[in-house]
User: What shape does this take?
Amino acid sequence: MTYVLGKLLHIVIVAGAVLPGVGAVMVWAERRVSAFMQDRLGPNRVGPAGLLQPVADLLKFIFKEDVIPGHVNKTLYVLAPVMSLVPALVAFCVVPYARGMAIADVNVGILLVFAISSIAVYGISIGGWASNNKYSLLGGVRASAQMISYELALGLSVVPVFLIVGDLNMEAIVRWQKENGWLVFWLFPAWVIFLISSYAETNRLPFDLPEAETELVAGYHTEYSSMKFALFFLAEYIHMTTASALSVALFFGGYELPFVTLPQGVWGTVLSGLIFFAKMSFFLFLFIWVRWTLPRFRYDQLMKLGWKILLPASLAIIVLTAGGVALRETLK
Amino acid sequence: MSGTVNVTVDGKQVAVPGGLNLIEAARYAGKSVPHYCYHPRLSVAGNCRICLVEIQGQGKLQIACNTRVTEGMSYFTDNERVRKAREGIMELLLINHPLDCPICDQAGECKLQEYAVEHGSGITRYAFEKVRKPKNVSWGDKVVFDSERCILCTRCVRFLDEVAGTPEVGLDMRGEKCTLVVKGDGKLTSPYQMNVIDLCPVGALTSRDFRFKSRVWFMHFTDTVCTSCARGCNVTVGSRGDRVLRMVPRANPDVNHNWMCDHGRLHYAFVNDETRLTVPRVAGKGAPYAAAIARAKAILEGARGQGILAVASPFMTNEELFAMKELLDRLGVEDRFFLKPMGEGDDLLVHPEKCPNARGAALLGFAEAAAEWPSKEYGALLHFAPHEGADLPEEALKRAKRRILFSLKEREADVCFPLTTWIEKDGTVVSAGDRLQRLTKGITFEPTLVTERTVLDRLHASLDASHRPPDTAAQALARLAAALPAFAGVTWTRIGPLGMKLEATGAPA
Amino acid sequence: MADFSPELLAKVKDLWKRYPERKAALLPAMHLIQKERGGWFSPETIRDTAELFEVPDIHVQGIVGFYDMFHDEPVGRHVVRLCKTLSCKLRGADELRAHIKRTFGVDHGETTKDGAFTFRCFECLGHCTTAPMMLVDEERHENLTAEKVDRVLGGLR
Amino acid sequence: MKTRIVKRPQLSVGERIYFATVVKGLLLTIKHFFGVCRDLFDWKNKKTAITMQYPEERWDFKDNFRGAPALVMDQFGREKCVACQMCEFVCPPKAITIWPAEFATKDNNVEKFPDRFEIDMLRCIYCGFCEEACPEEAIFLVKEAELVHTDKKDFIHDKGKLYEMGGIREDRILKWQHK
Assistant: This one.
């Protein structure tokens, strides 16, 4: 009973406060960073340095009229943002964001993440279809095709990690890295593929074709407004958070630091959490940084990159890694 | 003076009636010669000099207005010499012009402006101080005179002398001081004096009534007919924002030439009266049309046994009268009258019948009300009050138990429908000399107002569901023409903007 | 017929015979009328003249206004017209005008206090060879000097 | 039309691999990012940031700036407008409405004046046609551009407001003095 209550509390704190909180700060960071990169200042009026801007945005979203256009499939239209947000939240559950602090420390952790985050595309596709709008539909179709294409590369790029570590459990992967060094040094090409694929998976530039403003108005969320739009928005940022967290956990040593042994107990946990967040923050910043640097891919380029380059490359890496692992085992 | 002569205008050969002057003859060749002082209905003065043309074989340029065509004549209205001469005349006329177009009511329909653009050089070489002459001189309560704008064409002098028969204006002084003066105390007395405002090609004579009310380019113009008397002078009504601002005569050689009387011209205030009735009243309370028509239907049906008195108005159009006639036929009403306001007339235009369509009412089977009213008691009265003048005497009104009135202003009645004025509807009237003329809708006084014909038709349809009323005035006229021999063969387009004579009535021309 | 003297009417009728239409005789007749009616056209005179010639009043009024030799204001017993056009001006007409103003107290268009004469400056009277000159009623005075002017005008008193 | 055929540049292998250029781009944006970060601490001598922090910093309008239209008086304090309604006519969004009236006295050259003169600033598009059309040089677009009200009625500038904004403008054209 205590266990269940504790888990529930954990879930509520992470899914109800931490992740939306990160998402909210990301909204502010995105606007500020993008402004700085364009020689502007961005929102700096609401609160110190504009930090309360997300609060103002949220209030605005809440008080805006919730428009449901007459021509939409109402059930699916209302459901879509939720279907988009929930998998994003759930996918985070296996991420060990501090020592021993994964919500679900399961032994198939990374597979669960892929399984769940694949569902997220339904939210977008259904949102695009239910809007009954050509731009939204195109956005939804693009999202599904893009997800399927890059899911493959994403999944295959992580396989070498399992090959080397020999475990699917996230905690185990982190522990392995503590002992043998960050996996990124072993699997740099695989990490690059993972990074690129995760950008495509989260619909971020340079792969934001599902919402490509210049072509599709706003893609799948053209017809959405007020809180429903906010949910889509939040889902995207939480996806980014999850992707960054996975990058940290799988390739950058998770919550541990090399050459430093964290103390045991509560302080160790807090410290490890801070380390994790610091690493994650860098990747989140990278998301923004890349977005405001690179232009959008053309659709054929996107497909070409996914199928003709990333997929063979990741397969090649697997073969090479497998060979390496076999050699290691033989030499042992 | 008769027969045709062949002339060559700017190299184009045309055959024109003999005796024409060169301005009129040039029209046959599609050429227009500018003119200020010349007016086709006034004598030729030849003092503005803008109509100079070059006649082949004659050394000097000649004024086109005072030269008549001869066989084989060839003249140029638009060659280099003529253009240069016009340019010079324009420069001369504008030397002392005050250029106060911003405050001049003529601006927009001013011949000086038009010709300055078409024929002027755009510059002046005259660098001295301009001559000051009296401005804003009151010529009585209708006409305002501005001597600085005057180009001394004497159109006004000639009109008052030759047409109105009251020579009151003349030229005084000479040279730069030359100005128009009015006889005696300086006030015009002619009942046709406001025509000089239309005649004045520049802004020297402007209307006190229209003064500064609107620039002409803001106005909406409607060609219609004046309804102040039975003459039916053709007019153009200028309105802005659904309010009538002025009326000016429209040339019709068979009715009013280019003139109209001052009374008719100024007689439009009742149209703009903001206190007019705009919604029907049932027992003294405002009501929607549907309710008022239902009440009227109940009254008419209830009064069938006791008799109904119908009094039409000679201000109604033929189409309205016909709609009323159809309704009365349905109800079996025998006693149909109309009231005809009478007044003074004169030899020129003013007709003693002070209503536009008394003849039409008579043709549609309404009897002119005699001095004595039928002494019968009636169950109901259906009465269209005339816009003004004679109305039903009080005892006649009281003789009916229930009253349905159509009136401009609110009146005591069981049902009181608002009247619409002549400028708010399409229709036809029969003017003096059995001339059928068209009224054209120019304004919508209030969007809530429904014309009388529609009210009558709706009332009729409520009594008889098979009644299919016509939509437009043209359709109503076609129905009327089919039903009455006097109107046989008449169609909306055949009447045309200038009207037509009703031949079938056999009245003298 | 308006109350003009029989002599005048006779002269006017005589004038009428000389022109194709009566109106044409208006100018010579008006000179006669002006003389008979005290040297100027009062509104009554204008009305009478118009009545005689069967033209609008305003027509006669226009003629009076147009021509300088007709007056629409009362004048003195005599009318003195001093030429002010080029030749006379060069030969001292301006000085004579100033002299007259000094001596008799009248300038252009004014009448002496005793009503002896009305002084007017006039455009060329056609005697440039003997400039400066002036016209007293219908009598010419040429090669004027200040003394001569004093003498002539003094004689009018 | 003259056409010029632009040859597509042949990308080198390094460029086609893309990574070097991506990194180049990333370095460029981060340079600007840190540039603005630096400016934040020394705003007076800012080098990278270009935006104006509006309420604290303001534009210096040039003389041909087209702000709100306003009426001017001449140096004798008389209104120059004679209510000719040319501006009302030329106004593309029909923002101007004039009710002309006649002077009761006749002691000046002008007979007409605007009894009421209203410009609906919610309709005005600041095109300046009124200024161009005005024959009396009585209406000008002034530099006032910050029109903020909480009531729609306040956006309708009446004669008093327009003269208050326009003030006095010395001019040679004086309809009152001579024609």
The radius of gyration of chain A is 20 Å. Chains A and C do not touch (no CB pair under 8 Å). Chain A has one domain: 69-331.
